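Good morning C.,

I know you're traveling, so I'll keep this short. The sequence:
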Amino acid sequence: MKKIIISAAFAIMAFSACEKYEPVREVDTDFVRNYEKFWTLVDENYCFLGTKYNNDKNVDWQAVYDKWMPVVKNDVKEEYELFNIIGKSLDVLRDGHIWMISDFKTYSNNEFYLKPDLETYYGTDYEPGLVKRAYLQTSTGKDDYKGDKAFKTRNGLLYGMIERDGKKFAYIYYDDFTVQIDDNDYKYIDPVVQEADAIIFDIRENPGGSGPLGLELAGHFMKEETFVGYSTYKSGPGHDDFVDPFEMHVTPSKKYNWADKQTAILTNRGVYSTANLFTSVMKHAPNAIQVGQRSGGGGGLPMTHYLPNGWVVVFASNILLDVDMNHIEPGIYPDYEAEIGDFKTTGKDGIVEKAIEELMKRI
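The tokens, ready to paste straight into the viewer:
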């Protein structure tokens, strides 16, 4: 079992691995050969077809081939028809890390918004303006705020202070793990955090980005080097062919460390990919709780492939696992479940309210 300390080695092993590209060969537009290549690429490289890491999707990929290949052979006459059939084949994987790109259309999947019944969807009514209006702005008119406003923005971050019953909660909203946060940002945020009794760290609707960024951010909430999970990737064409898992460890931040602050991580189904990894890792922060909905998932790292006709197909060949070797693809369940509720009527965000309620018990 190999051990990886954030972040350089982890970035090279797990995250750069998904950036490999196959060379584009001479274009072959034959529909049957393209579907055959597509199906084989997924069969041999997609990481969630096997059962080795407790895959809960139970996809019969052979049945997909048996259903659609006769249609391709006998009925497909136009390339858009082939595109639609490949899209329907990908639908059964229910994976938001899957894309297909042609010169005329793009396929993507949002099945991670499905509820467990696989028929209805979680609501997506969250937007950070709700919190600004109800909790952070102190306004007597359209543009009349107390002092220098009750919230600030810095490098894509929104932060401010929520006060309730004599207690202060530093509120931070981070919506994209492609945005690099560094010491120039933390030096502005840290005074707000230090003044607060607790932290509300909101990552709702964060679609992910850089894995090393997610692990680095988690280091600001850790007291000591912490084992947080594993990463592995496909080693062969068999559904259960993987290299031995690498351990992931997070090193605590020394300069801006908030591990002693009680912290609530706010999540919903829009929390995906690196944001989902961050949520899983924060389960091991000593004073953090997760409040809201189960995160959207995305525990695989996407890799790019090409079909003979030049179309691009992207899907996961790497798996991220928790400390118990369970994959985090389905999402991370909250410690305290909550919904936004009828914000327009109540003027309150039910997930923020639940976070305040639980943090109050801890400070």
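Safe travels,
E.
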